[in-house]
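$ ./design --mode recover --in tokens.txt
reading tokens...
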């Protein structure tokens, strides 16, 4: 009997390939009958494959057109994920709007003693003149580039201690109010229905007394790797990480499930902090598409199981890209014109448990 094998084409930039497509993943997938095949981004996608599944982390109008054309010509191939869904994560305002909508929906079942979630206060600054008018935020604040395009530039941030630190920020940016969170950030990886939460070192808390001695700003890229100049005791900071209690699994799963359905995405992660002012209050501060999954424990088996489910479970396949293409496309040009912008879809009703997610 001939062995059934599946092909997963991947279109990734070189840096992402090096971190994600490791030999351990290739071998784990191969043992399950799944072959990961590199897509040549210098050749038309429709001339390659066809693949049972396509995963990608590229952007731009040309790639959008190629994906649409490929999906139309290969209706049995699953593309993960649609650029229309991914694009809302390319803007730090729209990425968190979906969390606000999800929070509002979950307030219908609000219990004052239960764990809650939301987002920090933030404001988008498009012109330097807006800074002079005031932001309405309380210092310190974190300045983040408005656009998230995967470049190093889009990950360059600043912790701003006072108005003096705003002098060197470059617009457009998002200013996000800094919330003391015990120096720990929780990274939640979502791969289809699989959810994994891990804890990482973050920026240390800043007391009002300490803030009065700080001026200007502090620049950094990745929060989990930063050695911030407001840390007075690095050893104590690491002990906080070790002793930090994980967020309730039920809450993390609820947020993950709600985001996955609202954004119609399979592969993403979101960063969560615990507001130390309110012990059972959690804040989503960032959402990233196709993050560094290789940092997730047992990522090889998790991704391989996901690929298998994509190609063998109808409920997973129907959640994919083709459904959106068939619904919205009369031709490729119409799709690009109607859905090229940034969108945040409304939360949807889950008929199974009667709760909006």
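writing sequence...
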């Amino acid at each position: 009997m001939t062995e059934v094998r599946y092909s997963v084409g991947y279109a990734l930039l070189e840096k992402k390939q090096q971190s994600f497509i490791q030999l351990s993943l290739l071998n784990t997938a191969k043992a399950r009958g799944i072959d990961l095949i590199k897509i040549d981004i210098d050749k038309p996608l429709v001339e390659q494959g066809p693949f049972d599944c396509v995963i990608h982390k590229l952007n731009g109008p040309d790639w959008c057109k190629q994906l649409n054309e490929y999906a139309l010509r290969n209706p049995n191939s699953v593309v993960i994920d649609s650029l229309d869904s991914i694009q809302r994560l390319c803007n730090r305002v729209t990425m968190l709007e979906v969390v606000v909508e999800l929070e509002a929906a979950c307030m219908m079942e609000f219990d004052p003693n239960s764990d809650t979630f939301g987002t920090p206060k933030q404001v988008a600054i498009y012109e330097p003149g807006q800074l002079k008018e005031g932001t309405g935020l309380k210092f310190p604040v974190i300045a983040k580039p408005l656009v998230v395009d995967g470049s190093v530039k889009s990950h360059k941030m600043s912790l701003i201690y006072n108005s003096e630190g705003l002098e060197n920020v470059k617009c457009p940016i998002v200013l996000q109010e800094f919330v003391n969170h015990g120096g720990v950030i929780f990274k939640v990886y979502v791969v289809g229905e699989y959810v994994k939460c891990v804890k990482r070192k973050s920026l240390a808390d800043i007391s009002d007394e300490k803030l009065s001695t700080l001026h200007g700003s502090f620049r950094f890229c990745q929060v989990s790797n930063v050695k911030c100049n407001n840390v007075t005791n690095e050893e104590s900071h690491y002990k906080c990480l070790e002793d930090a209690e994980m967020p309730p699994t039920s809450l993390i799963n609820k947020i993950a499930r709600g985001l996955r359905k609202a954004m119609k995405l399979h592969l993403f992660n979101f960063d969560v902090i615990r507001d130390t002012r309110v012990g059972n209050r959690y804040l989503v501060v960032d959402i990233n598409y196709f993050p560094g999954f290789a940092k997730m424990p047992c990522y090889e088996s998790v991704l391989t199981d996901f690929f298998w489910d994509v190609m063998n479970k109808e409920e997973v396949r129907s959640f994919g890209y083709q459904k959106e293409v068939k619904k919205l496309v009369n031709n490729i040009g119409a799709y690009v014109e109607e859905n090229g912008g940034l969108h945040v879809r409304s939360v949807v009703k889950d008929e199974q448990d009667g709760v909006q997610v």
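exit 0
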